[in-house]
Design brief:
The protein is an alpha/beta fold and 287 residues long. Helices cover 37% and strands 20% of the residues. It is built from 10 helices and 9 strands. The chain has a 6-stranded parallel beta sheet, with helices on both faces. It has a 3-stranded antiparallel beta sheet with strand order 7-8-9. Strand 2, helix 2 (34-47) and strand 3 (52-57) form a beta-alpha-beta unit. It binds adenosine monophosphate. Adenosine monophosphate is lined by residues 28-29, 35-36, 38-39, 150-151, 153-154, 177, 179-180, 187-190.
């Protein structure tokens, strides 16, 4: 597996192999876990023996707010590289912030991620999705993959990046892979390591809230606010500070204020102490 640190080196390596065939790409912020591994394995499977699997590790400063955890975000490069290699990655791009955002770009051009970026995560983390879209656009232009692999874990992120690739005509197919969970249902996340032992036990309540609302839906409860109440009660009982626990329309992310009549998703963001966790569950799909 090649480990490349500069755009120039990555491009040189990238153009050395023929562009026909599948080239999959898995962007990450490192601190890799089984959720990331599953994406890379799926990317490997799609690429096959004749294709290439690319990944990136970059803790992107522009997607963190000033009061967020950029400084303390876990950085575990050696273990990350070992995991990527074990999953069949061919090359990983590990740039510095100065490589991606050179100082001379004093008035940088960024991507406006549009209305989907102003709700839910975007309302709580202003500027977050502009940072995500801009860096992923740059990484796509550098890596030039045929397929971009994203996790369903970050539902709103994969939706916005799908729109970006579609609306800006990136010649890439977006693949969303399922959320990988711990045995008690907690979605794997690099941020889980911030949880104390006590918080870690309580954290499973997020998945309990999602599955309880899903079960109620399957038993006939089709009212959005009623399902939200089920999630909110479970989260509050476990000691979470809820930021949102909503039923939203899958494509527009509009909150479902009455009966669910179209594809919908349950979305939660909640804090345990200082740790902020997000998760989601698709309620029903397009028929
Ligand atoms: P991150 O390193 O948090 O930026 O995540 C990199 C990619 O891995 C994103 O597309 C995430 O949605 C995805 N990812 C993170 N956690 C999981 C998980 N538990 N299961 C599946 N994909 C995940």
């Amino acid at each position: 597996m090649r480990v490349l640190h500069t755009i120039a080196d990555f491009r040189t390596w990238r153009i050395a192999f023929p562009t026909h065939g599948v080239v999959t790409f898995v962007p990450t912020m490192g601190a890799l876990h089984e959720g990331h591994a599953s994406l890379v394995r799926a990317a490997r499977e799609l690429a096959g023996d004749g294709g290439k699997v690319l990944a990136s590790i970059f803790v992107n400063p522009t997607q963190f707010g000033p009061a967020e955890d950029f400084g303390k975000y876990p950085r575990t490069l050696d273990a990350d590289l070992a995991l990527l290699m074990a999953c069949g990655c061919d090359a990983v791009f590990v740039p510095t912030a100065a490589e991606i955002y050179p100082a001379h770009a004093s008035q940088p051009i960024t991507i406006n991620p549009g209305p989907l970026s102003t709700v839910l995560e975007g309302a709580i983390r202003p500027g977050h999705f502009a940072g995500v879209c801009t860096v992923v656009a740059k990484l796509l232009l550098i890596a030039q993959p045929t397929h971009l692999f994203l996790g369903q874990k970050d539902y709103q992120q994969q939706l916005i990046l799908r729109h970006m690739c579609h609306d800006l005509d990136f010649p890439v197919e977006v693949v969303t892979a399922p959320t990988i969970r711990e045995p008690d249902g907690l979605a794997m996340s690099s941020r889980n390591r911030y949880l104390s032992a006590g918080e870690r036990e309580k954290a499973a309540a997020i998945y309990k809230a999602l599955t309880a609302a899903h079960a109620a839906y399957l038993s006939g409860q089709k009212n959005g606010p009623a399902l939200e109440k089920i999630m909110q009660e479970i989260l509050s009982r476990a000691g979470f500070e809820i930021q949102y626990a909503v039923v939203a329309e899958s494509h527009t992310l509009a909150k479902v204020e009455a009966e669910i009549t179209s594809p919908a998703v349950l979305l939660i963001a909640a804090k345990l102490g200082a740790t902020r966790l997000i998760d989601n569950l698709v309620l029903n799909k397009d028929r």
